[in-house]
Design brief:
By secondary structure, this protein is an alpha/beta fold. It has helices at about 1-5, 20-25, 45-55, 65-75, 95-100, 115-130, 145-150, 165-175, 215, 235-254; strands at about 15, 35-40, 60-65, 80-85, 90-95, 105-110, 135, 160-165, 180-185, 190, 200-205, 220-225. Helices cover about 35% and strands about 20% of the residues. It starts with a helix and ends with a helix. Keywords: Methyltransferase, Transferase.
Length: about 250
């Protein structure tokens, strides 16, 4: 299972689409672009500019039908007939991470977060805090597309992303691997600042509207809250992720 997931293109690349994002990726010396796919209907100056940029970067350009490009991009309205697969060096399957000799000790699990801006900001924050992994399921969470990359200010390319099918699948794998599952909730009896954490812990961040899904909730070890003395009911999920991430930094520094 781990080997299969590890070689999947979905676990190796972030796909960006549209003329400007593709040109930006090709022009960034810090990124490795695996290939560019150009619709066979793409002609004229824009297509020529992309081909020149790809040649200058030593990146192969493949031609495909416009329909194929739309399918691969997953966004037919904005792909503009071009996409690029960018190597994400720290992205891998959750299965391979758990099979590792030194599995990650602290990970975030995104469960039903559908706003690209939130996913992008969480990836940026978690990377800044040095967390071992952010589990981004392929189903039920915003796709890792140019909107997520933009919200992360480009950090998404080098974030420690762990892929799996769904949040429920991830929760089961984590529980089987001996992780404690901690979910943020305003009604949590323990607070984030005083909860006792095991050696391996996963922190569930629920969706903007529905919170933690029922499938994942069944496997939660403990619900924890963020103390809020002010008169505010809850934080945006990306703000909560920032508080959580840097509380883990504080603990690791003790």
């Amino acid at each position: 299972m781990g080997d299969e997931a590890e070689v999947s293109p979905k676990d190796r690349f972030l796909t960006v689409y549209g003329r400007k994002p593709v040109l930006e990726a090709l022009g960034d010396d810090g990124l490795q672009v695996d290939k560019v796919i150009l619709a066979d209907t793409a002609r004229g100056p824009a297509a020529a500019e992309i081909q020149r940029a790809a040649k200058a970067a030593g990146v192969p350009v493949q031609r495909a039908s416009a329909h194929r490009v739309k399918v691969l991009a997953g966004n037919g309205k904005q792909d503009q007939g071009v996409l690029a697969d960018v190597v994400a060096p720290r992205m891998r399957s959750l299965a391979s991470a758990l099979d590792d000799r030194r599995p990650p000790s602290r990970v975030l699990l995104l469960d039903g977060i559908t706003t690209p801006a939130n996913v992008g900001m969480i990836l940026r924050t978690a990377t800044a805090a040095g967390l071992d992994g952010v589990i981004v399921p392929r189903r039920g969470v915003a796709a890792l597309d140019p909107m997520v990359v933009k919200a992360s200010a480009g950090v998404a390319f080098r974030a420690p992303v762990l892929r799996c099918g769904s949040a429920g699948e991830a929760a089961e794998m984590l529980a089987e691997a001996g992780y404690g599952l901690f979910a943020l909730s305003a009604s949590g009896k323990s607070t984030l600042f005083d909860v006792s954490l095991p050696q391996r812990a996963a922190f569930v961040l629920g969706g903007e509207t529905d919170g933690v899904s029922a499938t994942v909730a069944e496997l939660v070890t403990e619900w924890v809250s963020i103390p809020m003395p002010g008169d505010v009911e809850s934080l945006n999920v990306s703000a909560a992720a920032a508080v959580l991430s840097f509380e883990l930094v504080r603990r690791s520094a003790e």
